[in-house]
Amino acid sequence: MEGQYDLWLVVLSYAVALLAAYTALDLIGRASPADGWRRVVCVAGGVLALGCGVWAMHFIGMIAFHLPIRVAYDLSITALSMGFALLAALPVALLAARQRVSWREAALGGLLSGLGISAMHYVGMAAMKMSPPIEYDIWWVILSTLVAALASMAAIRLGVRLTRSRAAHRLWWRLSGAAMMALAISGMHYTSMAAAHFQPDAICTAHSFLDDETLLAISTGLLAFLLLGLTLLAPLFSVIVPKADAEHMVVLRRWHVLLLGGVLVLAMVGGSCVLLHAIYQVSMSGVEREAQLVEQLYAQVRAGPVVAPVDRQLSMLTASLEERRREGAILLGLGSAFFTVVVLLCVGVLGAVWRLQRGAQVLGEQRKRLTREIEEREAVSDALRQANAALQIGMQAMRRRNVEVTLLRDLGRMLDCCRSFDEAKDVIANHMPELFPGGAGQLYVNRANGGTLGLEAWWGDDAGQGEDIESDDCWALRLGQPHWRGTDNHPARCRHHAMRAHHETLCVPMTAQGRTLGLLTVWAPQPDRGQWLTEPERQLAQSAVEQISLALANLQLRETLRLQSVSDPLTGLYNRRYLDECMQRELARARRGGYPLGLAMIDIDHFKQYNDRYGHEAGDAVLVALARCLRQLGRAEDIVCRFGGEEFTALLPNVSRDGALAWAERLMEEVRALKVSWQDSPLGRITVSVGLAWCPDGALPPEVFIEFADQALYAAKHAGRDRLCWATDVLAG
């Protein structure tokens, strides 16, 4: 026996499955583990929505399959199939309402639910009581069961996702999940229908008023009322028990209930009345009309002779009517109970709406008070954040100042330990990048002429390319105070910053003891950076300049004192004290390096005559002329000293014996060629006597070495002056 599908009823079955899946996912997604009895209510609503939806979709799909015979459904077996539908929805709702579900648990729950859905389907088909029975293809049955299990598993996973997802994403998950679940449920049903084979001579033996039209009305009416009630009561429940963290949603939910509460009451009460009237018309009125027809037949039979087959058929028809009357009474009682539940539910809805309206003003006042408190707390919080930010900035500035003080202390301590200006330059070049990280700068020091400043130290990129500058090139030197220039087009830019027209610059003059020693200049690392040298940084630069100025002044003072202690004020040559210091040092170097060392003792011949004849000033002029000749003749490493009176000493490092002899002979020739005048009067010919001592390896003690040269000098003077003698010759003689 072949059947045909009604396309509109197929579409209706899918729409029913879609509505049931959406409602079930909505209710399950509202379940929270922390709510207790509210979770139970949501799970129970999900079970009812999903179970009734699957049951209604199943019978609408069966009604869509038209057979060429009359089809009816046994009431008790049909009710049993609804029980299987509710049992099948139970594991799905219980697992989907949890926060976490493993794949093994989801698979097991899906399998149990799939078996329940399959049992509901095949029990519902058994309610037809076909004779001969329906035959099933085992492979299609297995496939339909697998489809039901997969649909249940997908419902579990979607419910878990909705329970954990944010409210902003739940609508899309519900829509997509409901569409997928509805497609799977419909696919399971029509796969199961493909497994059924009806015999060509099969008939339906079920004696019930549950025919196709009645069952369709009951299925769609029950599902519509149930799903509509659950969908509208869910937001009402959220309004009655609002969440503490969703106070702003109360107004939206209140308007939702106020707008839809009336629709709920009218739809459910009116629909229940219509459904109850339809049940009465089908069950009670139809049975009464058939009972009247049977009474008329009985009257006709009693009026004439009774035929045994007719009497037997009338008895069977009477028994069938009695059975249908009992089923109709049961169904009418169920419809009345359903109507009573709907009325009570509507009364509860009206009470909740009244309670909501009563508390609307209180909620509004509480909301306003909470809003004011929140605004006040936010204002206090903003003030605290601002104070905290200011405190953090102050702490950062304090930490930076502490670091700067430490760096300045280290700079001053290092400069105090310097023994020369070269060491001081290295210290400044190494410490300034730490004081001004990322920037660049230069240190200029006054030259001896007083009008030019030479570049002595620098740090940063391109800072070593500068040249000497004039005092008029810098505004800081002109003004005698620090000169800062930002990145604006201020006209007072120093000429030595001409290549840095878009850099922020700072020039600080170095002064100490009332005189200008030099200039320190600093500039920003990048052009057009904005203000980089803030007021604290400019004060830091001035403090660093004070440290540097004091250190350089002390170095210059120490150098001046040292030169005065080791030099002769008349000739500018080193004195006897410096010779004693250098003698030990040079002899030690000669011993370490294994090179020779020469020593020449020089005495001006007849020097007393210049003093007696021309005066002491003339004698000083002779001494100065000889000192100048010695400086011009000597090498850079030679050490020339005034030994005392008219005697001079020349220490010649790393010189051979012949080299010392040549140096002495050349000296004597240069002295003979000197032309010295005093007050426009020539002082006559000047000659010197020279005593030479030579040590090949620096093994002699200093006093012995000087003694040898001194004895050679005395030997030259006794030999007639204007000559030189070797210490070895004197010692050998």
Describe the structure using short key phrases.
single chain; 18 helices; MHYT_dom; Diguanylate_Cyclase; EC 2.7.7.65; diguanylate cyclase; GGDEF_dom
* Helix percentage: 55-70%
State the helix count: 18
**Strand order, sheet with most strands:** 9-8-7-12-11-10
Query: What is the gyration radius calculated from CA atoms?
Result: 60 Å
Q: Report the biggest beta sheet as strand number plus sense, adding barrel if it closes.
A: 6 strands, antiparallel
- Dominant shape: rod-shaped
Relative strand content? 5-15%
Number of strands: 19
Question: Which structural class fits the helix and strand makeup?
Answer: alpha+beta
Query: In whole angstroms, how far apart are the ends?
Result: 157 Å
The quaternary organization reads as single chain
Overall pLDDT score: 76
Coiled coil: 360-387
EC number: 2.7.7.65
Transmembrane segments: 6-28, 40-65, 71-94, 106-126, 138-159, 171-190, 215-237, 257-280, 330-354
Enzyme class: transferase
Give your account of this protein's structure.
With 733 residues, this protein is an alpha+beta fold. It is built from 18 helices and 19 strands. The protein has helices at residues 7-29, 37-63, 75-96, 103-126, 138-164, 167-195, 212-240, 250-303, 308-417, 421-435, 475-479, 535-566, 576-593, 607-614, 616-633, 657-672, 702-718, 727-732; strands spanning 4-5, 65-66, 130-131, 135-136, 196-197, 203-204, 440-446, 452-459, 469-470, 483-485, 505-512, 515-523, 597-604, 639-644, 647-653, 677-678, 681-682, 688-695, 724-726. It has a six-stranded antiparallel beta sheet with strand order 9-8-7-12-11-10. Strand 14 (639-644) and strand 15 form a beta hairpin. Helix 2 (37-63) packs antiparallel against helix 7 (212-240) and helix 9 packs antiparallel against helix 10 (421-435). The radius of gyration is 60 Å and the shape is rod-shaped. Residues 238-252 have low confidence and may be disordered. Its EC number is 2.7.7.65.
